[in-house]
Structure prediction request, 124 residues.
Amino acid sequence: MDMSDRDFDDLRQLEEGLWRSDVRFNIQRMEEVLAPDFFEFGRSSRTYSRAETLAVPAQEIDAVIPLRDFKVRPLNPDVAQVTYESEATYPSGKQRALRSSIWIRSSSGWRLIFHQGTPIPDSA
Prediction:
């Protein structure tokens, strides 16, 4: 099963938007993007609900875009898994992680239902 070029581009734009402060901290936009039952297994090993994700205070995001090794794997015509490697610099230093997101297609477009970040150790 293949994804259309448009779906691939839409999912890349949506996922990369989550790494840009102007999108990530735009509550109206994030309410459109996050599915009602969204949750995340964070890089920190913590589980975040949709409400907790929306409540994160705005901050600058210093991430490498385009996202490295970005791939889309269709699970069915209306569900896709996105994987990539993130690199972002925080006050505590540079952090890398393997990322996986599950997106579902709705009548209003793609919505994020699940995300997971797995740390990549500095020695990797």
